[in-house]
Amino acid sequence: MQMQMDSLVSTHWLADRLGATDLLVLDASRHLPAAGRDAHVEFEIGHITGARFLDLATLTDTASPVPAALPRPDQVADRLAQLGAEPGARIVLYDDSALRSSARAWFTLTQSGLTDVAILDGGLNKWRVERRQLDCGISDQITAEASTLKDTTKVVTKAEMLANCQSGEFQVLDARAADRVFSSGIDPVHGGQNGRIPGALNLPFGKVLNADGTFKSPEDIRAAFKAARVDLARPLVTTCGSGITASVLLFAAHLIGKHDVRLYDGSWQEWEADPDTPKEQGPE
Questions:
Q1: Domain 8-135 identical in fold to domain 155-273
Q2: Residue 240 annotated among the catalytic residues of the structure
Q3: What's the chain's average pLDDT?
Q4: 191-210 burial string, b = 16+ CB within 10 Å, else e?
Q5: Of 154, 174, 143, 144, which Cα lies nearest the Cα of 260?
Q6: Does the N-terminal or the C-terminal CB of the chain have fewer CB atoms within 10 Å?
Q7: pTM over the 0.90 mark
Q8: Catalytic choice (240, 250, 253, 261)
Q9: Predicted confidence band at 1 (pLDDT cuts at 50, 70, 90)?
Q10: How many CB atoms lie within 10 A of CB 279?
Q11: What are residue 51's DSSP bridge partners?
């Protein structure tokens, strides 16, 4: 029986296993509209040999009132089947995005109950820097039978966030840049006002990453959380602008063995748009 992968794998590890019949490599790149980048076009220009395009930007639950909501488990199962994922396949995710969107994809898949899922440390950029093989175009794909997946309830709703403003049951950690969290101007990414959910702490997601895009050591990740005043003994909910970079912090917490962490998927985009939600602006 194949041993389960670590949640974070190196470029060397992946290069040694490319072509394994039970391994599916997925490009999970997703960009903000302002970046002016087309993830699908870039995939066709160059991708890791044998990889398939997850199209993370379209993997959402459009029936949900939450902006760009996480997909339902049946949607995840259907998409993976379209990409040829056999039941029990090991899945490695990578991206070439400033958002480190493979973390969002990792959360999307694990939230749906999949367990043998990993992120490629350093993503496509590190793969390129090491001059490893890339392919272009799109190869023929063989579809597989869809698995039955179930929601693992790692997502927090706006109603739960509102209740927490009174109860303080869990800590809230915002992954956005500090100027978006603590200033009172216009949010440069999603529009609307800058600000934060009352009581939210701030840890910009880049602080758990090295300069080359790889994740910091567990010791340095713990130090980053503690510097942000996170009590690692208490439950935590991560948030950001739209639920993408919050997933980076959630994955970083996973790497240090902290699993009582959930995601506020609507994040600031949903919270700011509701005139009835309490908000804080300016310095703490």
A1: yes
A2: yes
A3: 94
A4: eeebbbbeebbbbbbbbbbe
A5: 154
A6: N
A7: yes
A8: 240
A9: very low
A10: 15
A11: none
- Looking at the domain covering 155-273, what would its CATH class be? alpha beta
Kindly write down the DSSP assignment for every residue of 208-234, as one continuous string.
GB-TTSPBPPHHHHHHHHHHTT--TTS
DSSP result, 264-276: ESSHHHHHHH-TT
Q: What is the secondary structure of 94-146 as a DSSP string?
A: E---TT-THHHHHHHHHHTT--SEEEETTHHHHHHHTT--EE-S-------PP
DSSP annotation string for 238-263: EE-SSSSTHHHHHHHHHHTT---EEE
What is the identity of the amino acid at 70?
L
Q: How far apart are CA 163 and CA 97, in angstroms?
A: 34
Give CATH superfamily name and number for 8-135: Rhodanese-like domain (3.40.250.10)
User: What is the predicted pLDDT for the residue at 140?
Assistant: 65
The phi-psi region of residue 51 (left if phi > 0; otherwise alpha if psi is between -120 and 50; otherwise beta) is beta
- Check if the beta carbon of residue 29 is closer than 8 Å to that of residue 96: yes
* Overall average pLDDT of the 202-230 stretch: 98
**pLDDT of 210 strictly over 50:** yes
CA dihedral for 41, 16, 91, 50, sign (positive or negative): positive
Domain boundaries, the chain: 8-135, 155-273
pLDDT in tens, 98-123: 999 999 999 999 999 999 999 999 99
pLDDT digits (tens, 9 = 90+) for 130-183: 999 999 987 766 777 777 788 778 999 999 999 999 999 999 999 999 999 998
pLDDT at residue 47 in the model: 97
